[in-house]
TrEMBL record:
It is found in: Endomembrane system. It holds the Pfam family Ras. NCBIfam families: small_GTP. GO terms for molecular function: GTP binding; GTPase activity. Belongs to the small GTPase superfamily. Rab family. The keyword rRNA processing does not apply. One of its GO terms (cellular component) is cytosol. This is GTP-binding protein ryh1. It comes from the Eukaryota. It is a lipid-anchor.
């Protein structure tokens, strides 16, 4: 007769061992800094000469949260050029978070947020977390074209979860952005098959497991 040294009560499971995965899609016009946001978060690097994203890029990263939860963020970097717009809806469709980016020194990129938000709403309705990100805050003193009042008004209009200004060059508020996203995530129950389908759509997925610092939030954050 065999003996089970680790009995598990019938009908129960150890939910603490479940690695929950969340799809986060980055949207916005070309050159607003979507790729540099992801790269700064993943590798803590910044490159002045980023090439424009062609189609869709995919990376994933495991985060260890303050409440002892572990989650995996699947980061989908989309192209901002008009010729790739037809690809975007299929990647929005099963996303949990839409990070919609603009350049605070480029008013047109901010005005175009309406169409990106419309794309998200068409595919996901209200069943998605929307985050507004104004990048290049290091240029705020000399070249700002989008005020905090502008984005706050849009934030209230569209019901985004929060908005924040970042600088990937100065490494300002990038970790805070992802920490706030993680804190906003509900306990989705995504099936294994759904997760495999999402990962199979990426050409060369790369996973890096790094803890996020507990002191990531700077004292002068511009977020709401």
């Amino acid at each position: 007769m065999s003996t089970n040294n680790n009995p598990t009560p019938s009908g129960t499971s150890d939910k603490s061992n479940i690695l929950r995965k969340y799809k986060i899609v980055f949207l916005g016009d070309q050159s607003v800094g979507k790729t540099s946001l992801i790269t700064r978060f993943m590798y803590d690097t910044f490159d002045e000469t980023y090439a424009a994203t062609i189609g869709i890029d995919f990376l994933s990263k495991t985060m260890y949260l303050d409440d002892n939860r572990t989650i995996r963020l699947q980061l989908w970097d989309t192209a901002g050029q008009e010729r790739f717009r037809s690809l975007i809806p299929s990647y929005i469709r099963d996303s949990h978070v839409a990070v919609i980016c603009y350049d605070i020194t480029n008013k047109k990129s901010f005005n175009n947020l309406d169409k990106w938000i419309k794309d998200v709403k068409l595919e996901r309705g209200d069943d998605v977390i929307i985050v507004l990100v104004g990048n290049k805050s290091d240029l705020a003193n000399d070249k700002r074209q989008v005020t905090l009042e502008d984005v706050e008004a849009l934030h209230r209009k569209v019901g985004s979860k929060f908005f924040i200004e970042t600088s990937t060059k100065a490494n300002h508020n990038v970790k805070l952005l992802f920490k706030k996203i993680a804190q906003s995530l509900p306990e989705f129950n995504t099936s294994v098959n759904d997760e495999l389908a999402m990962e199979n759509r990426a050409n060369k997925p790369e996973t890096i497991d790094i803890s996020i610092e507990n002191n990531a939030a700077p004292s002068n954050s511009s977020c709401c």
